[in-house]
Write a structure and sequence with these properties.
The chain has eleven helices and eleven strands. By secondary structure, it is α/β, with parallel strands linked by helices. The protein has one domain. A nine-stranded mixed β-sheet has the order 2-1-4-3-5-8-9-10-11, with helices on both faces. A two-stranded antiparallel ribbon has the order 6-7. Strand 10 and strand 11 (256-257) form a beta hairpin. The longest helix is centred in the first third of the chain and has 17 residues, at 33-49. It starts with 32 loop residues before the first helix and ends in a 12-residue tail after the last helix.
């Protein structure tokens, strides 16, 4: 066993300097106020300071879930302009909550929270905590047994994800019943210095390794959702991540990645520079070019 020690002169080191030296201590759970404070800070910084992440024309999708009421309900947007959140998730093999021709009128009236599978319920909670009124979930906001509605809506998804306030990514959920917040396992911390907030915790997986193994990233459809989203918050089993068109960050670190693309990411597609791939392939190949690929040509149930 090897033991590494430090001699720290507490009189000469201010606590603020530890932000640049040490990783961040994890909150007790993903639904804590500390977690939402970190997410809100990421969003605020992105919206105020990132030129490449500025959005114009945030028209709501055709239908969205209004989560502001105690009992959420599906609403027709009628081209209203307002912030909304999108969900990227695995459907899985278990039956999930959908909207059909027979159930759409019921969805307009009310959807009891207890009816939502856990992943959707968590998405509602996250949307509410971030102060956003509307949530878009494909299985509920698209009429699943209407070919006409599916063909139209699937071709709008490029805009739905591009214009959304953020995309919630259920990175480790195998289906809509597994959840987002509940699947996070707490990380053990040991306090080292009583006078300062200095803790010891296990090292966390490499960014690339974690995303390569993530269940959601085995879906072809999720690749497009991730690339097209202006901002995306992936929830893993251990921590929360941030990806936008300008930077990448993770809950367990105070550092942000803002560097250029590593060409090897074209092959592995899972590094911290992942969102820069389109720009690397062709400086003029922005999301507009990628969006020209029809998502509607890819059968949803195969992804």
């Amino acid at each position: 066993m090897h033991v590494l020690t430090w001699n720290i002169d507490l009189d000469k080191i201010s606590s603020s300097k530890f932000d640049k030296i040490f990783h961040r201590k994890f909150p007790p759970d993903a639904a804590s106020e500390e977690s939402y404070a970190i997410i809100s800070k990421w969003v605020k910084t992105c919206r105020q300071n990132h030129i490449d992440c500025q959005q114009t024309g945030t028209i709501l999708p055709t239908r969205v879930i209004n989560v502001s009421r105690k009992g959420p309900c599906l609403v027709e947007s009628k081209a209203t302009s307002a912030p909304y959140i999108t969900l990227s998730h695995c459907w899985g093999i278990k039956e999930t909550l959908t909207t059909t021709i027979a159930t759409i009128q019921d969805r307009y009236r009310k959807i009891n929270l207890c009816v939502f599978p856990l992943t959707f319920r968590d998405a509602v909670s996250i949307t509410r905590k971030l102060g956003v009124q509307y949530l878009w979930v494909d299985s509920i906001c698209i009429i699943q047994d209407s070919n006409e509605d599916w063909e139209f809506e699937s071709r709008q998804m490029k805009d739905y994800y591009r214009n959304s306030y953020i995309t919630i990514s259920a990175l480790q959920s195998p289906d809509s019943h597994h959840g987002i917040l509940a699947c996070l396992n707490p990380v053990t911390h040991i306090k080292l210095v009583s006078e300062l907030n200095l803790y010891l915790r296990p090292s966390l997986p490499d960014y690339r390794e974690l995303f390569q193994k993530a269940l959601l990233n085995h879906r072809a459809w999720a690749l497009q959702e991730r690339l097209l989203s202006t901002r995306i918050i992936p929830f893993s089993e251990k921590e929360i991540f941030w990806e936008c068109l300008s930077c990448t960050a993770r809950q367990g670190s105070t550092m942000e990645f803002t560097g250029r693309l590593d060409p090897s990411s074209i092959i592995t597609s899972e590094g911290e520079d992942f969102k820069c791939i389109l720009t690397y392939l062709n400086p003029r190949c922005s999301k507009e070019k990628w969006s020209s690929i029809s998502l509607g040509d890819l059968p949803r149930h195969l992804c």
